[in-house]
Every structure is written in structure tokens, then in C-alpha cells.
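Q: Got a minute? One more chain.
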Amino acid sequence: AGLAVAVAFQAGVLNIGAEGQFLIGATMSTAISLELGPILGSCVIPIALLAGAVGGALSAGIAAELRTRCHVLEVISTIMLIQAIRKVPLSYAKQMSGGNSAYSQRR
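A: Always. Here it is, folded:
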């Protein structure tokens, strides 16, 4: 997340969405590891790392597209995207547990 902020700052863009990029990347990496880990063993590690990088980049790409096409400031769009992105890992965990996770039982 620190590297994402540093690269964006060098480009003259304020990256408030590093948290969302990190969450999407971590969720993508975890999903790939859980799905392909039993099949590929330790060979899944580079694939999971690549999936995490792609997930984070896609998350940043949403804010970039909003800036390019709709002239929405990336500070505003990334703050709003974080609110939606925070629900993705919880939704994935709920789906993987079949709705029987401790989080879903409290709701």
C-alpha cells in the first residue's frame, strides 16, 4: 500500500484509495490461494501474488476511469469506493463459509 501511495504521489496524484486497493488485492490473492492451492501446491504463490497485484490495479483503474471519462476527482471517488470495497472480503468470506461464519450469525 505504501508503494502505491508513493508512485501516485510521484505522478502528482493523491491516492486516498490505497486501503481499498489493498483489500481487493488481498481478497483476490486469498481466493486464488484457496481455490488453486490444493491443486498446485506451493506453485500457487506467484500466481496468487500476481492476482493480488491485478486486483489492486483494477481497483485503482476504476478511479482512473472515473477521472478520465467523468472528470470526477480521484480523492472523492476513492473515498466512496473504499466504502463499497470494504464489503467485498466480508462477502467472500460469507460465501466461502456457506453463510455459517461467525460474522453472518451475529447479523
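A: The chain has six helices and no strands.
Q: Perfect, thanks.
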